[in-house]
């Protein structure tokens, strides 16, 4: 789920090892056409955060690599960002890390006459995502391989957890001079 197309896969193959050397994980890659092609890369540090400085460092490193390897034909814009609060869930460990939070899942097949599910994540069991669906007594098990798209749902609990996880801002050096 980190990549959808063969071109996304090619960019991911190049970006992942580079991101790992910087202590980051690539969450998702999308190369999108339009008036101008955009290569969108979402990444995060090992602790689940991503600062502007980390985005800039990864962007510079990827730009240098892509300049050399040229994985995308023609001109394109490179966008490097954090996954955001209502982030995509693209790897099994994401479902474990975000257990207890609400998510939307979309499947590649019908299950009980539907492809879309919304509920509270309950972790991973074997290769299955566990999710507590509204109105169901038992936790549903959905094979990870069946999921085509998954993301967290913006809730007050998610926002509170995100704010709590943020590192405290460093004091401004100008503030110290004024003291």
Topology overview:
Elements: H1 6-21, E1 24-32, E2 37-45, H2 52-69, E3 76-81, H3 92-97, E4 102-111, E5 114-125, E6 128-133, E7 140-143, E8 147-152, H4 156-165, H5 173-178
Parallel strand pairs: 2-3
Antiparallel strand pairs: 1-2, 4-5, 4-8, 5-6, 6-7
Task: Describe the overall structure.
The chain is of the alpha+beta class and 179 residues long. It folds into two domains: 6-81, 2-Layer Sandwich (GMP Synthetase, Chain A, domain 3), CATH 3.30.300.70; 92-165, SH3 type barrels (Roll), CATH 2.30.30.180. The protein contains five helices and eight strands; from the N terminus they run H-E-E-H-E-H-E-E-E-E-E-H-H. Strands 7-6-5-4-8 form a five-stranded antiparallel β-sheet.
Structure characteristics:
globular; alpha+beta; 179 residues; 5-stranded antiparallel sheet; 5 helices; GMP Synthetase, Chain A, domain 3; 3-stranded mixed sheet; 2 domains; SH3 type barrels
Rg calculated over all Cα atoms? 19 Å
Counting DSSP E segments of at least 2 residues, the number of strands comes to 8
Instruction: Give the overall average pLDDT.
Output: 92
Q: Total number of helical segments?
A: 5
Q: Alpha-carbon distance between the termini?
A: 51 Å
CATH superfamily of the largest domain: RimP-like superfamily, N-terminal
* Uncertain stretches: none
Strand content: 25-35%
What top-tier CATH class of the largest domain fits best? Alpha Beta
Order of helices and strands: HEEHEHEEEEEHH
CATH topology of the largest domain: GMP Synthetase, Chain A, domain 3
Count of all domains? 2
Q: In percent, how helical is the residue content?
A: 25-40%
Structural category is alpha+beta
- Shape estimate: globular
Strand order of the largest sheet: 7-6-5-4-8
Largest sheet: 5 strands, antiparallel
